[in-house]
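Quick question, first post here. What does this chain look like in 3D?
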Amino acid sequence: IAFIPTCMSPAADLQPSRADRPSRRSSRRIALFAGAYTHIADGVSLTLNRLVEHLEQQGAEVRVFAPTVDDPAIEDHAGTLTSVPSLPVPGRSEYRLSLGLTPSVRQALDDFAPTLYHIATPDVLGHNALRRAHDTDTPVVASYHTHFSSYLKYYHLGLLEAPVWGYLRSFYNQCRQVYVPTHAMADVLRGHGIDSDLRLWPRGVDTDRFAPSRRSAAWRRAHGIGTDEVVVAFVSRLVWEKGLDVYADVIDRLERQGVPHHSLVVGDGPAREELETRLPNATFPGFLDGTDLAEAYASSDVFLFPSDTETFGNVTLEAMASGLPTVCADAAGSRDLVDDGTTGRLCAPGHVEAFAEAVRTLVVDERRRDRMGTAARKRAQDFTWPAVLNRMSRYYDEVLPHPPSPSPQDPAPTGATA
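> Answer (accepted):
Ran it through. C-alpha cells below.
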C-alpha cells in the first residue's frame, strides 16, 4: 500500500486546538487518523477540519493523528493534532507517505484513550490504527474519501487494481461503519465486495460564500475577461488524474470550431506548466481561496469538470451553489449531484466529443445557461454543513459504547442512508 498517495509529515508533537478543551473528560473521545489534515487545503482536509470543529462544539474530545509540514496550507486547524512521521513521495512532493504509529505516537494515542477510532485514509497509519483499535477492543469506523483504484491508470499501474481492491476490501470490512459521499460510490464499493455497514455522508457547501451574487465585473476585467465573453471554468488541483487532458481537448475543439468562449483554469499543481503550454489562450490565476475563489466561480458561466476519479465533487457543488450549469463526467463523484438535463450535463468519462458538444450548447444558448444555473443553485441548497455534520454525530452515537443523551436532530440532506 506504500504507493497510495497521502499527505504526511516529519515529527511527532502536539499542536493545540483552536477550540477550548472540555473541563471534564468526555465519553466521546474520538481519535481521527488522516493522510491529509493541514498539509494541503483540499476538499478532504477542509471537510475533516469542519467535522472536528463541529464535534468539539458538541463537547466531544478529538485528537487528530496526521502528517504535518513546516509551512502547512491550513494553519488554524481544528482539534489537537499529533504529528505523525512521514516522507515525501519521490517526484510528487505535494504527497507524503506516513510511517505509521511510532512509539511516541502510540503513547500519545494510549494516553488519549479514545472511545472511538475514525480512519479517514487506509494507508500505513490507517492500517496501524485499525490493528490498535482491535487490540484495545475499541469501535472503529472509516470514511472513504479517495477513489484509489481510479488513479492507477494515470500512473500506469493498472495491474495493481485487483490487489488494491483486495486490500481495501479487507480493510473496510473490519470497520463497524464506512461513510461514503454518494449512493453511486456506495454501489462501487459493494460491487467490489465491501459489504460492511455503508452510510451516506455527503459534503456540504457554504451557500452564503458561494453564491451568484459574488459575480464581479471588476474581477473579470482584472483577469482579462471581456464583458460579453462566456467563461468555461475549471477549478481543482492541477494533476492529470483530475481530467485535465479531457478539459484541454474540449477547449481545443471549441477553438477549432470557432465557438466564442474564454477558458479559465483555477488551481495549481505539477501539471500547470504543461497545461499552460497546451492552452495558450486560457487564463491561469493560480490557487485561489476566500473571496477570490467565490468571485472566480460566480464570474464564470459554465463549469467543466471531466474528472472521473472523485468520490464527491466538492468543486462541482461549489460551482452549482455559485449558479453555474455543470458539465461533468458520468461517474460516482458527480452522478449524485448533477441532474442531467436540469442542473447540467453528464457525459461518458473521456468522451471528448460529448463534453465538447455539451459545453458548446451552453456557450451559445444563454437562456439554457441561466435556466440550468438557477436549478443548480437550488439543488446545492440541499447540502448545508450543519445537516451534514450532525448526521456524522448521530452515526457515531450508534457505535459508541455509551452514547450520550439524544439531542435534537437537524434535518438531513437528501438521501439519508446508503
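Residues 43-57 form the longest helix (15 residues).
The mean pLDDT is 87.
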